[in-house]
Write a structure and sequence with these properties.
- The chain folds into two domains: 39 residues, no CATH class; 130 residues, Rossmann fold (3-Layer(aba) Sandwich), CATH 3.40.50.2300.
- The radius of gyration is 19 Å and the shape is globular.
- Strand 6, helix 5 and strand 7 form a beta-alpha-beta unit.
- The strands form two sheets. Strands 5-4-6-7-8-9 form a six-stranded parallel beta sheet, sandwiched between helices.
- By secondary structure, it is of the alpha/beta class.
- Helix content is 40%, strand content 23%.
Length: 182
């Protein structure tokens, strides 16, 4: 039996009523229950997030813990999540192995603000490639525009939208800019 090479999911109005989706493969048509397809896509999503390394820079301990838990729910390995309450640059300079893939950066930190930290990261050739997402309670249009102009890879408003958080992170990791103030 040949292995499946291509998976194309086609949801029809009828299949929604029957609670299943038609799955078309390269080798012909077959039907799988909707829960099988959903499980497959959830597994693929979680596998893709399992090995990323994330740095949460947030001065509020409760916000750090909530963000960590949301990342773990989305499949990020807890050992790959680092948390700091302040300027992450000394940590980033000394912990390039394992390399950090994503920084979730609060904009209002004691000492240096998130904009200053981002500018310093972008000026350092060893850190410039890291994806940096602004995370803040300041969610006015001008705040989002300022973050965009500063060079952030995304913007997430606080409180973080839990149901959409995983989708936002996945989109950012795939190179899409996400600007979600609410």
């Amino acid at each position: 039996m040949a292995s499946m090479k291509i998976l194309i999911v086609k949801t029809t109005l009828f299949s929604r009523w029957c609670n299943h989706t038609i799955v078309l493969t390269r080798f012909g048509r077959s039907r799988y229950p909707f829960w099988v397809v959903s499980l497959y896509f959830q597994l693929m999503k979680n596998l893709s997030l399992a090995n990323i390394h994330v740095l949460i820079v947030e001065d509020d301990e409760n916000n750090r813990m909530v963000t960590r838990k949301l990342l773990q729910v989305e499949g990020v390995n807890g050992d790959n999540i680092f948390m700091l309450p302040e300027d992450p640059l000394p940590f980033l300079r000394s912990h390039l192995t394992p390399e950090i893939d994503l920084v979730l950066l609060d904009l209002q930190l004691p000492g240096k603000d998130g904009y200053t930290i981002l500018a310093e990261m972008r000026a350092n050739p060893l850190l410039a490639h890291i994806l940096v997402v602004a995370v803040t309670a300041n969610v006015m249009r001008e705040d989002v525009e300022r973050a965009r102009e500063a060079g952030f890879d995304g913007f997430l408003g606080k409180p973080i939208n839990g149901p959409l958080f995983g989708e936002y992170i996945q989109r950012i990791l795939n190179g899409e800019k996400v600007w979600a103030p609410t």
